[in-house]
Every structure is written in structure tokens, then in C-alpha cells.
Write a structure and sequence with these properties.
Strand content: 35-45%
Strand order of the largest sheet: 4-11-9-6
Oligomer: single chain
Number of strands: 11
Radius of gyration: 19 Å
Order of helices and strands: HEEEEEEEEEEE
Mean pLDDT: 77
Distance between the termini: 41 Å
Low-confidence stretches: 37-56, 61-67
Structural class: mainly beta
Number of helices: 1
Largest sheet: 4 strands, antiparallel
Shape: elongated
């Protein structure tokens, strides 16, 4: 099982009423348990079972940006297409790709997600105006986590 298959499994389980799922093959043991703060376990079948502690929630810092109230237009989320570290700019001395109030068009680079030392440029899927940036710079993000709110043009 690769990472994408595991992510799909977790996503599927989150949409059901199941509280625990165990899958065991000759190569792999997977146990996903909901509630009680239990972590997800994925281990090779021959290895001893190791429990990972859930990460403590990150302390809330100041909001990245104040969002103006969106008008009557539709507001959509741009979500992370992968797990990684979110960066608003190409480097510490570079300006952010987008700010609140900026107009974006489909295909415009809006951030970078670093995954396994690879820097992936993330492009906007929609055209519109950035109304809120939902993630602080240089913080880890999960697959399908909302990154931006965009008011459609």
C-alpha cells in the first residue's frame, strides 16, 4: 500500500460510522481508530507494533490576515493537494505570491508546498479575489486542508 492508498482509506473511513478498522496482509498491518486521540498505525507485518502519539495542536498565532467581508459572490476554498510544509513565498527574502485582496487567475502560482525536500508550486484552480489566507507561513498542512478562501470573479 502506498501513501495515496492509505490517505484514500482514511478519507473513506472518515465518511462512515466506523470507529476502528484493522487491515492485515502478509506485508503490512494497518489500524485506524477514531476518537480517544488514538493515532493511526501503519507498520510492516514483521516489525513490532509501534504506537505514535498524536501531535499536540499547534498554538494559535495571530491570524495571517484580516479578511474583508465577502460580497454576495460565491466563496470557494483552495485546498492542499498533498501533505507538506506551506510557504507563502519562494524564499525568506522574496515577497508572498499572493496577499488578501489580490486577484488570481486559474493557473497562477499562489504558494509552495514542500514535500520530501521537493518544492511544489501550487497553482490556483479558480479565478477570483483572495479573501482569506487560512494557513501560517512555514507550517505543515495535511492533504485536502483548506489553504485559501477565494471569492469567485
Amino acid at each position: 500500500m502506498d501513501t495515496k492508498e492509505i490517505q484514500k482509506l482514511i478519507e473513506f473511513i472518515s465518511k462512515t460510522d466506523l470507529s476502528e478498522v484493522k487491515i492485515e496482509t502478509s506485508d503490512l498491518k494497518i489500524q485506524v481508530r477514531r476518537g480517544g486521540g488514538e493515532a493511526i498505525k501503519v507498520v510492516p507485518a514483521a516489525a513490532p507494533v509501534v504506537y505514535a502519539e498524536p501531535a499536540a495542536p499547534a498554538p494559535k498565532g495571530p491570524e495571517v490576515s484580516a479578511a474583508p467581508a465577502p460580497s454576495s459572490s460565491k466563496v470557494v476554498e483552495i485546498k492542499a493537494p498533498m501533505i507538506g510544509t506551506f510557504y507563502r513565498s519562494a524564499g525568506p527574502d522574496k515577497p508572498p505570491f499572493v496577499e488578501v485582496g489580490d486577484e488570481v487567475s486559474s493557473g497562477k502560482v499562489i504558494c509552495i508546498l514542500e514535500a520530501m525536500k521537493l518544492f511544489n508550486e501550487i497553482e490556483s484552480e479558480v479565478s477570483g479575489k483572495i479573501v482569506k489566507i487560512l494557513v501560517d507561513d512555514a507550517t505543515p498542512v495535511e492533504y485536502d486542508q483548506p489553504l485559501f478562501l477565494v471569492e469567485l470573479a
